[in-house]
Amino acid sequence: MEHALEMRGIVKIYTETGLRANDGVDLTLNKGQILCLAGENGAGKTTLMKVLYGLEKPDAGTISVMGKPVSITSPLQANRLGIGMVHQHFMLVDDFTVAQNVTLGKEPLKGRFSYDLKGADEAVDAVIRRHRFSIDATKRVGSLTVGQKQQVEIVKMLYRDVDILILDEPTAVLTEQEIESLFITLRALAEHGTSLILITHKLHEITAISDRVAIMRQGAMVGDFPTDSVDGKQISRLMMGQSVSLVVDRLPYTPVQHPVLRFDNVSVLKRNQQRPLLDGVSFAARSGEILGFAGVGGNGLGVLEAVLGGFLPISSGAIVHKDEDISRLDSHALRKRGLAYVPADRLQVGSALKATVSENLIVDARNEFTRHGVMQRKKIEAHTQSLLKTYSVKGSPSMPIGTLSGGNIQKVILAREITQYQDYIVFSEPTWGLDIASSRFVYERMVQLRDEGAAVLLISSNLDEILAVSDRVIVMYRGTIVAVLEAEELRQVTKEDMGAYMLGLRQQEAPHG
Amino acid sequence: MNPVAIPVLHSAVAIMTPLLLASMGGLFTELSGMLNIALEGLMLMGAFASIVFTHFTGNMVVGIALGVLASMLLAAILGTVTLHLKSNVFITALAANLFASGLTVVLSFKLFGNKGVVVFNDIGRLPRLDIPALAKIPVFGDIFIGHNIFVYLSWVLLALCAWVLYRTPFGFRLRATGIHEQAMVSLGMRPSRYRFIAFLVSGFTCALGGAMLTLNLGAFVPNITSGKGWIALVVIFLGQKKPIGLLFAALVFGFADAFSNYAQGAWNVPADFILAIPYVFTLVAMVLFSIYTSRKNRVE
Amino acid sequence: MVDRMEKRRVTIVATLRNSIGAVVIVGIALAALVVLSLLLSATPLKTLRYFFLGPLQNTYYFGNMLNMAIPLIFGGLGVSLAMRSGSFNLGGEGQLYSGAFVATISALALARWGSAGVVVALFLGACTGGLLAGLSGVLRMKWNTSELITSFLVSNAVVLVVSYLIAGPFMDPATNLIATRMIPESFRFTRILEPSNLSSALFAAVIAVLVVHLYLYKTKSGYELRLFGLNPRFAAYGGIRTKWYQVWPMFLSGAFYGLAGGMAIFGTYYACMKEFSTGMGWNGLAVALIARHRPAAVIPAALFFAYIESGARNAMLHSDVTFEIASIVQSVVFFLVTSAVLQKIGSVQRRSI
Fold first, then answer.
1. In which band, very low, low, confident or very high, does the pLDDT at A439 lie, cut at 50, 70 and 90?
2. Of B168, B191, B193, B209, whose CA–CA distance to B44 is shortest?
3. pLDDT of A461
4. Biggest CA-to-CA distance, chain A
């Protein structure tokens, strides 16, 4: 049988860093096949797909599509060859409608110059109906849910008549229910003859959807099997070189009853907006527990983070820390009271990429390194050296932090915040984009803090993570708390139950954390 | 209507035209995601080149065409340096302003031996149009008639501009470039191409705005644009980056200018103060606008 | 010890490599000058000789060139401080002019105070510039109004108002110039390179560079300012008072411009003439850009600009081109100075094997 796609000996070297992201990689794909491309972060999966989609120019290697050798220099050409890609971060213009986004770059015309807006609606609607999607072609993309936006991305490629569709970590932002409906869609596409490549590093997804699995590690292809001939352990060993468990040993759960941090009926309402961003949120975080906050993006987790960090003032209610009202305090004042917080956006919020590692490390403790307004260079250097050693960061104090890898940047942030913490600490999406070994490092630190008596608040849209490390879980939906799962309930809850809460399909009566 | 108000409003419509023209071009660069502070320099280039070429060719249409070309050439240099040599658009645009103010004086000195005001007596007046249909508009009719051809041209161009931005593939791609550059890249389109065209459009409309200034006056005055390109930038913000918004914002500034001209004649205010009024007015308008937007986004 | 020397050697090599881009840009600018002379001048060789060698031909021209660099150094430092904090100050023209004006009238009012009066008058001039720029900072802090545009607008209005004051209430009726009265002898800086205009303000400029350098890199406030400039969200997250750093650097920036104006009056002009400082503000900005906001690099950048300006003046005096040729050369520098492509020339490219 002829291969839909054949990549041979692909080499890609990034000149800036000298990294061999792809080192002689081979990959084939049959017509109508669903292939999972698995591997840790930095294994080279995305680079390989970018080469295939014309976004990166390979240094060596050949590509054949439907048996014909081709050279792909731009996404436009990839589209012409019938190759499409759905990126991990949506490439959508929020201000445009679904149809306008889908047809961008391939617009139907009325006359010679005029954009046929109606024709676009009709053409896109036809694609949507043919593949039974649930979106409206005339809706503004900005008003859609994450799952719907992903549908728009897929429709965008189908409109371009692709035979080979690449999806880069398509499930990262979806709930269980949305993932299920995505998989149904993908299977239907495969039955129609579309060949699919899914980039993922989640084992259960690989077994659930794929016909074949190809595994990459450190820029090389280390395995390629029919999915039913391998088991999870084997795949995981190939991905990581050794198997790593996510479960971290911990002391029994014995929280102090008196809360460290309490939210009393907290609401955030922006002017001219109908729906509050946070609506009557109440909970208490206690010493010696990890309190998890779960939810789908856009349902209040980000707002909660901004409120905890002092970036967003609240409209009503009260935030109480050690029996003092801190509702009106901004970041500056909160830091003075000992706020420690690992932000979700570690590159834009958690660090200044062009500043040195030292400068990044002392930001919230700068007063301790200042005498009469002058910075004490030697003291700072010694402090930095010792922290880099303790957290085994690969890097030196005077390097700009932006030159470090994502995992090492996160370690620097952890080192800084854990040194700073006094009684509670906030982690928001702490392992997003990290590989399993680095994630495990983060979990170990979190559990260690909890065992030492910290109140740990974990805000995360990663359900596996929430379930693996939390002692109690609060589920948010549209700015309100829809469920609170105490320690004993947490042991029995299924991911499907959680998904139902996160999507607002189910709600506890008067949940109170 | 009040006998003072009609002439003031009439001249407001004329005064706003260069602002409207320049802000249209600026709207293209703005929507493509670049703050183009070179409007001033592009206007100045067009102002100088149009009248000089009209003088040498003896034909106003040819003169304006060549003036537009000169301004677009500067815009093309600006675009190339910014997009292909990957420079900071703010600094390169500042360079374009400096270049235009230097070159116009240097050339004026070379060609006419004069660094000050150069009067061209051989240039006819700008053609004026009387459109009877406009005169029939109740109350305001008198304000819109008897303007020079640039005034009406600017209205036609504004409509064209709205059509291009909202009804053509180019307009959608240009706006997509400004909102989500990577979305364009992922579909195989080059954002720099659309930005370059936006620069050229800026050069085109700014040149027309500048040409109107010099040809109306029949003379070139060094720095004749006197901050109009900057005010055009403010017009874009106040007009909420929408073609129709530009019209209203430009009118407000035209009125402020017309009023201060009137004030100078009527109340004998020192000339320096009069010249300062547009800047102060622009400043106040900008501050009020930003207070309005920041209130809108505030948490209650 | 060896380690430290090795480190220093690496730093020096890196600095040299990083300067190659600047050298290329200066080269292109000078090439543009040659082309312009060939096109515009009937005697291009003579023009070029006066342009390039004029400023160096004797102590008079050389001293004047150094003197010209003084306000550029102060202005360049001011812009660097604002840029480092992530603010744009486009109001240098008005801040410098009004600073000069206020310093002058303060000197006239404080004639009896002697050297204490010098300090007070310069301080008041600096505060004037500082408050004007600080206003833009406050507007940005309170309502997020673009300080880039407001500083420009305020400056343009202020230039006109100051011109009015000089030509009106404060004009010296005794001269034909549109200028204020002359400041008392005791306020004038000593000339240090007769017969040129170069004054002891040069030392003040060098000290100012040192002070700004130490402030930015050694103090806590400088650290906070730089971090805020590098990433405002990170600064807020780290508990740095972000509102303060939207206002304070703008104030400092304007104050340095104001000081530049006062220094120019007390060192060179002795009276505030109408529009005497036109272009100085923009040139200060250019100097900061070419120095890439590093205080130490402000000195060579200011000297380069002073050289071009005085070269153009020389060529205008002795040949057939006009002074504005300098702004064309400066614009070429502006066009190229931030180019990422040109900056890559000579920078270390790591290669993998």
1. confident
2. B209
3. 79
4. 77
Query: Nearest to residue C164, comparing CAs of B251, A193, B272?
Result: B272
* Integer Cα distance of C308 and C326 in angstroms: 6
CA of C330 vs chain A CAs: smallest distance (Å)? 29
Predicted pLDDT at C9: 66
Domains and CATH numbers, chain A: 3-240 (3.40.50.300), 244-338+421-513 (3.40.50.300), 354-420 (no CATH)
B252 lies in which domain range? 5-296
**Partners of chain A (3+ Cβ pairs below 8 A):** B, C
Domain residue ranges of chain C, discontinuous segments joined by +: 42-320
In angstroms, the CA B103 to CA C130 distance is 33
**Band of the pLDDT at A180, cuts 50, 70, 90?**
confident
Domains identified in chain B, total number: 1
How far does C222 lie from chain A, in Å, by closest CA?
Answer: 9
Neighbours of chain B (3+ CB pairs under 8 A): A, C
| Residue among A92, A100, A268 minimizing CB distance to B299 | A268
Q: Look up residue C38 and give its two tokens.
A: 């060939």
Phi-psi map region of C84: left, alpha, beta (phi>0 left; psi -120 to 50 alpha): alpha
DSSP string, A317-376: EEEEETTEE-TT--HHHHHHTT-EEE-S-TTTTS--TTSBHHHHHTGGGGGGGEETTEE-
Chain B contact for A79 (CB, 8 A cutoff): yes
Q: How far is A426 from chain C (nearest CA, A)?
A: 13
In the predicted model, is pLDDT for residue C134 greater than 60? Answer: yes
Nearest CB among C156, C330, C336 relative to B279 is that of: C156
What span, in angstroms and rounded, lies between the C-alpha atoms of A350 and A409?
A: 9
The residues pairing with B119 across neighbouring beta strands, listed in sequence order, are B219
CB pairs under 8 A between B and C: 129
Instruction: Report the distance separating Cα A90 and Cα A193, nearest Å.
Output: 25
Percent of chain B exceeding pLDDT 70 equals 97
Give the CA distances from residue B53 to residues B60, B67, B151, in Å, rounded to whole numbers and listed in that order.
8, 7, 21
**pLDDT value for C353:** 28
3-state secondary structure of C257: helix
Locus of tokens 């019209």: B247
B205-245 residue pLDDT tens: 999 999 999 999 999 998 888 888 988 988 998 888 999 99
At A167, is the secondary structure helix, strand, or coil?
A: strand
Residue B161 has pLDDT above 90, yes or no: yes
Residue A299's identity, in one-letter code, is N
- Please give the order of strands across the beta sheet that includes A60-65: A20-30, A3-13, A60-65, A68-70
Write down the residue that tokens 């490439």 correspond to: A91
Q: C42-320 domain in CATH 1.10.1040?
A: no
| C-alpha span between A144 and A135 (Å, rounded) | 9
For chain A, give me the number of helices (H) and strands (E)? 17, 24
Interval C94-117: pLDDT, tens: 999 999 999 999 999 998 887 889
Note every long-range contact of B134-140, with CB atoms under 8 Å and residues 24 or more positions apart, other chains counting. Answer: B139/B1, B140/B9
Residue corresponding to tokens 């280390």 = A222
CATH of the domain at B113: 1.10.3470
From the list A105, A269, A315, the residue facing B188 with the nearest CB is: A105
The reported pLDDT for the residue numbered C261 is: 96
**Whole-Å CA distances, C83 to A277, C76, C86, C244, C343:** 35, 10, 5, 15, 19
CB A66 within 8 A of CB A55: no
